[in-house]
């Protein structure tokens, strides 16, 4: 399902509730909400480049991969899908600091982030879900601003 680069969209209401493949709403510059997004996406969910998106509230509950790169107004990872069966891509999110909230997501295996060292530290602890160990190493490496859960 694709509605990408549609500058008339401000929400995803009226779209499908389930997508058997990928869902692509990237580049919808006026999208301010993911309300109405499918609850399950068996493939990838792309909302990257939605520059006015401030929250991920309404995200699917389950996806294969999730990409919210360049959603520059996004302030938190609190509303990410409950289950990501693959990778989370989060480049160019200058206002997001609560990277450790990623550990609450079921099955997420990898994160791709701007900073390679930050990415490597988080990916090291994702398989075991050792939030405390990850937090300690982030602080030790000088990434205390990303060592938040809220």
Description:
With 150 residues, the chain is an alpha/beta fold. Helices cover 13% and strands 16% of the residues. It contains 2 helices and 9 strands. The chain has helices spanning 116-125, 131-140, and strands at 18-19, 23-24, 40-41, 44-46, 62-63, 65-67, 83-84, 87-90, 110-113. The strands form 3 sheets. A 5-stranded parallel beta sheet has the order 2-4-6-8-9. Strands 1-3 form a two-stranded parallel sheet. The protein is globular. The chain starts with 17 loop residues before the first strand and ends in a 10-residue tail after the last helix. The relative contact order is 0.13. The mean pLDDT is 95.
Poorly predicted sequence stretches spanning 5 or more consecutive residues: none
Structural class: alpha/beta
The strand order across the widest sheet is: 2-4-6-8-9
Shape: globular
In angstroms, what separates the terminal alpha carbons? 32 Å
Helix proportion of residues, in percent?
10-25%
Whole-number average pLDDT? 95
Question: What is this entry, summarized?
Answer:
The protein has helices at 116-125, 131-140; strands spanning 18-19, 23-24, 40-41, 44-46, 62-63, 65-67, 83-84, 87-90, 110-113. It is an alpha/beta fold and 150 residues long.
Task: Offer a few descriptive terms.
5-stranded parallel β-sheet, globular, 2 helices, 150 residues, two-stranded parallel ribbon
Task: Describe the SSE topology.
Layout: E1 18-19, E2 23-24, E3 40-41, E4 44-46, E5 62-63, E6 65-67, E7 83-84, E8 87-90, E9 110-113, H1 116-125, H2 131-140
Parallel strand pairs: 1-3, 2-4, 4-6, 5-7, 6-8, 8-9
Helix pairs in contact: 1-2
């Amino acid at each position: 399902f694709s509605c990408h680069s549609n500058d008339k969209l401000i929400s995803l209401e009226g779209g499908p509730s389930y997508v058997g493949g990928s869902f692509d709403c990237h580049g919808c510059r006026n999208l301010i909400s993911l309300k109405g997004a499918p609850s399950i996406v068996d493939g990838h969910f792309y909302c990257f480049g939605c520059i006015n998106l401030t929250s991920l509230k309404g995200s699917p509950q389950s996806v294969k991969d999730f990409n919210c790169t360049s959603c520059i107004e996004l302030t938190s990872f609190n509303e990410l899908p409950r289950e990501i069966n693959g990778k989370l891509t989060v480049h160019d999110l200058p206002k997001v600091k609560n990277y450790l909230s990623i550990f609450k997501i079921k099955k997420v295996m990898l994160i791709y982030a701007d900073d390679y060292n930050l990415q490597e530290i988080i990916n090291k602890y994702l398989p075991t879900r050792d939030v405390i160990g990850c937090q300690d190493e982030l602080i030790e490496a000088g990434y205390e601003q990303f060592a938040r859960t809220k």
